[in-house]
Amino acid sequence: MKLTPDLHAEFTPEGATTVAEANGVSFDCPGCLGTERHHRLHMPFASKCPTGTAWTEQGTSLEDLTFVDAPRGTRSLRVLGYPCHSHFNITGGAIDFYGDSHSP
Question: Which pTM was predicted?
Fold first, then answer.
């Protein structure tokens, strides 16, 4: 599963077309894609948002975006509080699910 086109990813703010221009990335949650639980996720980049919850990004585009670190010392994204309970990494623009993740 890829950020684009599968998860309709786009950089934020609107109009940003590269990692260097972006403050973060927004995309459909891969754990509930195509279900009634559908929602979007927004992940801010640490290079533009040095305080708070932000992921350290690598790459130049949505096609090669990789999160290499996160606020809690792991690069994984764990979505709690939604019925999907997704747990995954973003590597080279693709989603890598953990075994404890509910995925489609």
Answer: 0.87
